[in-house]
Amino acid sequence: RLGRRCGPWCDLPFRLTHERIGELIGTTRVTTTRLISRIRAADLMQVPSGETSLRLAPALVDGAPLAA
Hints:
Layout: E1 4-6, E2 9-12, H1 18-25, H2 29-41, E3 45-46, E4 54-56, H3 58-62
Antiparallel strand pairs: 1-2, 2-4, 3-4
């Protein structure tokens, strides 16, 4: 709901720390870092250098429970 579509990807206009993401999903920062590494390796998330945003792939966004 906070992102905007940019082509097929969804841009989030802010960055979250791994610690904050862990708090939001109920896991530790270490586990969050491992998960984010896997998501980035699968090319489902991009973090453009020098920008304060995240880019999420359609497959990640469309599969989210609140995507509708």
